[in-house]
Amino acid sequence: MDNIQENLDRAAREVPENFQKAHEAEENAVERAKDAFKNQAEKLPVPTPPAAVFHSKATAHELKSRLNWGEPNLTILDARDRESFYGCHILGALNTPVDMLPDAVDLTLQRKRDIYIYAASNEQAQTAAQKLREAGFQRVAELQGGLESWMEIGGSIDGSQTQFDPGPEAYNVFSRLKAFSEVRAKEKQMK
């Protein structure tokens, strides 16, 4: 009987110590699992693209990429005259001629909103962008090459002059690949 009592006393003394060891082992296992999960999570591909790097001079591909991903909070401004705008413009663009800037957008656009602006020339777009920057708009990008570069990459357009016959080269894969490589070469020159 003394043997049983001694075993019970020893077990009673060891309970707190054993409990502490079990608790520490559990905490260590949880930490190892967290570390393993974190290490594996870092190896997984990112399901959405990282936030776009905003440049003061943007290419048509950069803008198209943002639109294709459905990125919110951007506005496209066409700083050409109304007649040119109605003839053809980037789908979704707002017409705001250079001489109406910044007053035309002062009360309608947020100062932190991403604005892409194009005009009849890169110089005119630069002038329009500068007017917006001076008015406090912080994220204004000039679309290099304007509407022409947008159309070269097959960007969506609208307007009265947008109905045209694409021609046989539009259906020829080799012609399209050649045209794409020419556009990429132009973009590299602009950077």
UniProtKB/TrEMBL annotation:
SMART domains recorded: RHOD
Record-given protein name: Rhodanese-like domain-containing protein
Sequence ranges assigned to domain Rhodanese in this UniProt record: 70-159
Pfam family, one: Rhodanese
CDD domains reported for this sequence: RHOD
Protein species of origin: Oscillatoriales cyanobacterium SpSt-402
